[in-house]
Write a structure and sequence with these properties.
Helix 2 crosses helix 3. The protein contains five helices and no strands. The protein has a single domain, classed as lambda repressor-like DNA-binding domains (434 Repressor (Amino-terminal Domain), Orthogonal Bundle), CATH 1.10.260.
Length: 76
């Protein structure tokens, strides 16, 4: 996991005033597991990445640092 991904995970959570415990519940994991995600100690499952992108209203590409545009892609 790259540093930008880890930074964005923390910043997006903090911007919405969510705790790690609250986000962990959304993902169905423990707070410790989510903390390990934010610290880069555990790889994140793809399904969790998608769920977080939806929770924060951003694209997965933005979370991953592939793009600077946070807007999700319009579906066709």
């Amino acid at each position: 996991m790259n540093a930008q991904f880890l930074t964005r995970l923390r910043e997006l959570r903090a911007a919405r005033s969510l705790t790690q415990t609250q986000v962990a519940r959304v993902l169905g994991v423990s707070q410790r597991t989510y903390s390990d995600y934010e610290r880069g100690r555990l790889p994140m499952r793809g399904s969790h990445l998608i769920r977080l992108a939806a929770l924060y209203g951003v694209s997965a590409d933005y979370l991953c640092g592939i793009t600077e545009d946070p807007q999700p892609y319009a579906g066709s």
